[in-house]
Amino acid sequence: MYLRLKIALLLVLTLCIAGCNGAREIDDFAYVVSVGIDPGPDKQNIFTYQIATGQGQAGKAPGAGETSTFLVTVIAPSLAEARNLLNSVVARTPNLSHTKAIIIGEDLAKQGIGDLLGPLLRFREFRGSMFITVTRGSAKEFMQKNKPIMEKLPSRWLETSLASRQDTGYFPSSNLHQFYIRLKATSGAPYATYMGLNPLNLESRPVGKKEAGEKALEYYPEGLGREGGNPAEIIGMAVFVADRMVGVLSNEETRAVSILSGEFVRGFITVEDPLTPKHGINVQLRLGEKPKIKPTIVDGTPIFDIDVLLEGETTSIPSGINYEAREYGQLLEQHLSNIITRQMEGMLTHTQQLDTDVVGFGLHARKLFSNFDEADQINWYKVYPTVKFNLNVSVKIRRTGLMYKTSSIKREDSQ
Q1: Contact 192/132 with Cβ under 8 angstroms?
Q2: How many CB atoms lie within 10 A of CB 209?
Q3: Which of 30, 107, 251, 406 could cross-link 92 (Cys pair, CB 3.0–4.6 Å)?
Q4: How many CB atoms lie within 10 A of CB 257?
């Protein structure tokens, strides 16, 4: 009896797991790899779809006259209607289950994108792992001019680029799931990857001013002085209050956010030599441990005591001063600690001016409440600008590269 029941269940299970139960072949679909959204006329939006042609895949370069993707732009009131219109343009059924990125034009992001997120999260073809990005100018123009050289698909370029953020900390990786969680939570603000198109004229357009002791400059997209390659670039982050973009953080500020949120992996910093400022010193940094953040309330004001430990490896000492020696090494460590502290203070001041807690201090502030309901009643967007921070940044030089002792260059005028 039991044997017959098992056989019957196996037969039913075989029918349920059989492939091609939808009777649709792969080449019946038009696979959308990215979607760009800009504001349009009459309260509608402009949707730009980047669709894979199937050419140049499987490791083969596209042939003459072949392209790996093409763009289709439609005007519609919603993503659902835009998909309907797209279906009238392409012969195959649009499929968004492999969409890698949603690219939002800056003008639309400043208006608010809450109405767009509903379909993205409810419709099964949109995955929570899709990247959410904001581009300077229009998304349509960015998609038209984004011409990767080393990657066959622009979506692959974006995916590979965002994976490399761990080497600098100069830009974040924001996906749909993460953005939505921060949008609904009361303890941290949403943010998105920030992109732009460089004019490639070798003209550098830095922002802000260098802190004392710094060598490197701060940038937004389009500001790097460079020529050649793909004009598209990723640097900095777009920050939001609820669903509305309120500002941007530079590469340096973004790295400070990454460090304080415990997501920083590694990255180089170039500073003035503390004893001979005309020279620079390169140090590769990484987190020694997760930042320790302790919230308290004093006279009704939230105060966060923050301890940050960074470990460094010197990779260049042009001055020839022996910073491997402990007495000089401590001087360099304190120099680095002071510079990074000022960078973090600048970032915190900027985000407080924008009323946006992209680090997520609100999560740590929940320790001050006895239950979730009490914490949920607090409007953290209004509280965050009043917060005070006590920063304690410590940098320890753990390694000295492939040299254990620096010696100066013998010059003509040396004795």
Answers
A1: yes
A2: 10
A3: 30
A4: 23
DSSP state of 415: -
- Convert the pLDDT of each residue in 269-308 to its tens digit: 999 999 999 999 999 999 999 999 999 999 888 999 999 9
How far apart CA 185 and CA 182 sit, in angstroms, is 5
* The pairing of beta strand 280-287 with beta strand 301-316: antiparallel
Asked if 32 and 96 count as a contact pair (C-beta separation under 8 A), the reply is yes
pTM of the entire predicted model? 0.87
Q: How many CA atoms lie within 13 A of 55 on its CB side?
A: 11
The predicted-structure confidence for 175-234, as pLDDT tens digits, reads as follows: 999 998 888 887 889 999 999 999 999 999 999 777 788 888 899 999 999 999 999 999
Beta strands in 8-165 (DSSP E): 29-39, 45-52, 69-76, 93-95, 101-105, 131-135
Give the SS3 label for residue 229.
coil
Distance CA 269, CA 284 (A): 6
Which residue is it, tokens 């609820």? 242
Q: In sequence order, what DSSP letters do the residues of 346-396 get, joined into one string?
A: HHHHHHHHTT--SS-HHHHHGGGSSSHHHHHTS-HHHHGGG-EEEEEEEEE
How many other C-beta atoms are found inside a 10 Å radius of the C-beta of residue 373?
8
- Output the six-digit token pair for 310: 């960074």
- Encoding tokens for residue 73? 């732009």
Q: Give the sign of the dihedral formed by CA 214, CA 256, CA 400, CA 165.
A: negative
Residue 192, H or E segment: strand 191-197
Looking up tokens 């919230």 gives 295
Q: What is the DSSP letter of 133?
A: E
Measured distance CA(209)–CA(226) in Å, rounded = 20
Residue 4 and residue 23: Cα distance in Å, rounded?
Answer: 31
Name the percent of the chain in helix, strand, coil, to the closest 5: 30, 30, 40
Distance of CA 50 to the CA centre of its chain: 21
